[in-house]
Amino acid sequence: AGNKTFTMIKPDAVADGHTGAIIKMIEEAGFRIVALKKTVLTPERAGQFYEVHKERGFYNDLCKYMSSGAIVPMILEKDNAVADFRKLIGATNPANADEGTIRKLFAKSIEANAIHGSDSDENAEIEGNFFFARTEKF
Ligand code: CMP
Questions:
Q1: Is it the case that residue 30 has pLDDT exceeding 80?
Q2: Nearest of 114, 134, 107 to residue 7 by alpha carbon
Q3: DSSP string covering 93-107
Q4: Side by side, which strands form the sheet with 3-9?
């Protein structure tokens, strides 16, 4: 048991062949994989996922980038999942990410930053349900 968080490995990291290395880091940090798939977002669906950012200057670029290739969404479980996962991935801008974090190791830029992590329990639930049906979570 434990809390849940939602993550997705972003198109740059999937295209560069880092999926396995990132999943290994996630499991070694003590997260249990509840759900996992490889899929693609249309620009419209990326827009829905990032709706909260729609007034931001980077929104259109972000939707284009997030639909540019395959992504690997996952639901993860661990005590204190949201906060511990954000620690594991590091700062949004890889220039500010701590040594040893996933973004420090694999992110290319503030946009192509390798991986997403939910910012609250509530958003983890919403984001997980965006990608996964009840029968895909166990
Ligand atoms: P994430 O925090 O997972 O979700 C919002 C995403 O928008 C973020 O990762 C980056 O991919 C992107 N993003 C955030 N801030 C910027 C920015 N200033 N410029 C470009 N992209 C950004």
A1: yes
A2: 114
A3: SGGGPPTTSHHHHH-
A4: 32-36, 72-78, 3-9, 115-117
Bridge partner residues of 50 (DSSP):
none
Using the atom order of ligand 1, give the atom closest to the CA of residue 119: 2
* Distance from the alpha carbon of residue 1 to the mean position of ligand 1, in angstroms: 30
ipTM of the complex: 0.93
Q: Cβ distance 81 to 32 under 8 Å?
A: no
Domains (ranges, CATH) in the chain?
Answer: 3-136 (3.30.70.141)
The residues near 118 (Cβ < 8 Å, ≥ 6 apart) are 5, 6, 7, 82, 85, 124, 127
pLDDT value for 9: 99
**pLDDT value for 24:** 98
Rounded to two decimals, the pTM is: 0.96
Tens-place pLDDT, residues 81-93: 999 999 999 999 9
- Measured from the CB, is residue 119 less than 6 Å from ligand 1? no
- Retrieve residue 70's tokens: 């395959």
CA-proximal residue: ligand 1, atom 22 (nearest)? 111
